[in-house]
Design brief:
By secondary structure, this protein is mainly alpha-helical. The protein has helices at about 5-15, 30-35, 40-55, 70-95, 100-115, 120-135, 140-155, 165-180, 185-200, and strands spanning about 25, 55-60, 65, 160, 205. Strand 2 (about 55-60) and strand 3 (about 65) form a beta hairpin. The two termini are about 20 Å apart.
Amino acid sequence: MRIPAHSVCTAIRDDIVSGVYARGARLTEEQLARRYGVSRVPVREALRTLESEGFVVSRRHAGAHVAEPTAQEAADLLDMRFLLEPLGAARAAQRRTDAHLKVLRGLVRLGQERARSDRGADLAALGGWFHETLAQASGSPPLTALLTQLRHKIAWMYAVEPAERPAEPWAEHGAIVDAVARRDAERARALTALHVERALPLYRLKQTDRPRVRVSQHAVNSAGPKN
């Protein structure tokens, strides 16, 4: 059975974001095909996609390498988040479905429960799901794709410190969902902009001296990508 290129792309991207591949590390089709248990064809397609997303660069006579973004490029990502996430929230208020609203409210309830019990690892995952669902509720595939790619890149370049009062970000999430439920686009935009601005001091650039790729094989799940 042929493994879809998007599944291979997701697997490679996840390994880049988590630091399995160091920035600047060379990525060969043979190495990647062996690691993920696929042929070189989906690997080649995946590398082209990752290059278009900015995770990979192709160097003449040297092949594909993990990109090495500058500190300024990393800072630009946070500026982009500040501009795009409020837009996504405003669109969500205009276009959300009842199903989106149900999921968002459920995530807020879970987040508030986890915040009260101080379960930080759960909060990070729930926060990611919240923002992903909010982006999907925008009803704009191009905007959703941009926000998804932006979250991947920020996770790649930044570590996020836990909030001192973990309940506060989830109170902000709840207020955003209330605005989305009322279809109040301007309030959803303003609350999301404030939420993003308050989170900025928690971001710290990751160190770039990460270990080179491990050699153990990591077969791709043929059921499809995780996101």
